């Protein structure tokens, strides 16, 4: 799990660095692409990362620890995202839901990548996941 230890901070930093006028779906997609690229970039590193991801996802105690980390990452992403969203009575709710959807997409991409033995491109999976999430992530609260 060592290579996963800095992922939450890397995602938060990436979100903070995104342009303020960027849509939530685009900013959050780029946020997730940072750790996904770390997992799958170099072939030697990708194979090692795939073995570690498989171990984490298939070992209940490691999976539980990974989900605990994701809970902290969700809080950090939601706090960062709250600064980007228009103010309103549901701003915090929207930020927490968006952060949760983001980490569910991240988790799903890792699972699909692992299940395919590295055969599926995690960057393409990330793009597909966020294409599906974009309508919910980008819904304008004032339009309701």
What report would you give on this structure?
- This protein has helices at residues 7-17, 24-40, 43-58, 60-82, 91-115, 122-137.
- Helix 2 (24-40) packs antiparallel against helix 6 (122-137).
- The longest helix has 25 residues, at 91-115.
- The protein contains 6 helices and no strands.
- It has 144 residues and is mainly alpha-helical.
Summarize the structure.
The chain has 144 residues and is mainly α. The chain has six helices and no strands.
Note the beta-strand portion.
under 5%
Detail the poorly predicted runs.
Answer: none
Overall shape: globular
Tally of helical runs: 6
Measured on Cα atoms, how large is the radius of gyration? Answer: 15 Å
Cα separation of the termini: 42 Å
Write the layout of secondary structure elements.
Layout: H1 7-17, H2 24-40, H3 43-58, H4 60-82, H5 91-115, H6 122-137
Keywords:
75% helix; 6 helices; mainly alpha; 144 residues
């Amino acid at each position: 799990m060592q290579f996963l230890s800095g992922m939450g901070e890397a995602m938060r930093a990436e979100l903070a660095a995104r342009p303020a006028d960027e849509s939530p779906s685009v900013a959050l997609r780029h946020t997730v692409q940072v750790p996904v690229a770390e997992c799958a970039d170099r072939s030697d590193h990708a194979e090692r990362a795939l073995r570690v991801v498989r171990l984490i996802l298939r070992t209940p105690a490691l999976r539980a620890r990974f989900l605990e980390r994701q809970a902290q990452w969700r809080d950090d992403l939601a706090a960062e995202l709250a600064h980007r969203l228009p103010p309103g009575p549901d701003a915090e709710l929207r930020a927490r839901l968006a952060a949760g959807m983001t980490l569910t997409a991240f988790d799903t991409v890792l699972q699909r990548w692992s299940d395919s033995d590295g055969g599926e491109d995690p960057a393409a999976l990330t793009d597909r996941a966020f294409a599906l999430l974009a309508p919910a992530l980008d819904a304008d609260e004032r339009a309701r």
